[in-house]
Design goal:
The complex is a heterodimer of chains A (141) and B (111). Chain A is α+β, with helices and mostly antiparallel strands and 141 residues long. Chain B contains three helices and seven strands; from the N terminus they run E-E-E-H-E-E-H-E-H-E. Chains A and B meet through helix 2, helix 3 and helix 4 of A and helix 2 and helix 3 of B.
Chain lengths: 141, 111
């Protein structure tokens, strides 16, 4: 294998309309990326978890109970793993700065706190096309 | 969706075994089932996690919900046979303090 092959970037994408199977489809997309490139187990676990949290958020809040169009791209690069999630739903209220762990017996509010703990970078922005999330983590453990 | 398997073990303890991925869809089912178990008069519950491949904040929410209603009725909810991924998520959220892991389903209520 020559140098350029070793540094090849792997990309796996999903285009769907959100529904009961969306979280499973998102996980299948991640699994396809992990099958194509060797990524450490802990890094895979962190990305699987972060995507489940943001995916749940999109399904629950972006569509306000209605389906939204969702595009997901998983990129495994030489140094980093990233997932971009775009949906055409309504604006979601996100306060990335205050993603603290809630009190012990709280039943909700841990999603973003978990995301912050398992990825190196989380970005959210909103424009006229919808909501855009980027999750990134270094590839090594 | 089919319910998770439940069984009674000694000393009036109900065991429930969530299988697969405990994410948003499965969590709402678990939450409802835990509520039904407590309303049915059994407030000592062991959640057998040996067949749970994955948990996220939705799954944690269902466990906390079950813990609260079980305690309200004078019982408790305990988790057993926790796999690595679930253990990591409990530690990340500090919930391992509220939900310590018991090694075995059968001895989780032995104290």
């Amino acid at each position: 294998m020559n140098q350029s092959t070793q540094l090849l970037t792997i990309e796996r994408a999903l285009e769907t309309v959100t529904g009961p199977d969306t979280l499973a489809e998102m996980q299948q997309t991640l699994d396809a990326a992990w099958a194509a490139e060797e990524v450490p187990e802990y890094t895979r676990m962190c990305m699987d978890l972060a995507v489940s949290e943001i995916g749940s958020n999109i399904i629950e809040h972006s569509g306000n109970g209605q389906p939204v169009r969702l595009r997901m791209v998983v990129t495994v690069g030489p140094e980093t793993v990233s997932v971009v999630l775009n949906d055409d739903g309504q604006p979601v209220s996100v306060d990335l700065a205050s993603a603290a762990i809630p009190e012990e017996l709280s039943e909700r509010g841990r999603g973003l706190a978990i995301v912050h703990r398992v990825v190196d970078k989380v970005c959210y922005f909103r424009d006229r096309d919808g909501n855009h999330w980027t999750l990134m983590r270094r590839r090594s453990e | 969706m089919v319910n998770f398997t439940t069984r009674m073990i000694a000393s009036n303890v109900t065991v429930i075994q969530p299988k697969g991925r405990l994410n948003m869809a499965a969590a709402s089912m678990l939450r409802k089932q835990l509520q039904d178990i407590v309303e049915g008069g059994s407030s000592r519950i062991v959640v057998d996690l040996s067949a749970t491949d994955f948990i996220d904040s939705s799954g944690l929410g269902a466990l906390i919900s079950g813990l609260k209603i079980a305690r309200q009725e004078g019982g408790d909810l305990r988790i057993a046979a926790t796999p690595k991924q679930v253990g990591t998520v409990l530690e990340l959220t500090n919930l391992n303090r509220v939900l310590p892991t018991y090694e075995s389903v059968d001895t989780a209520f032995d104290d």
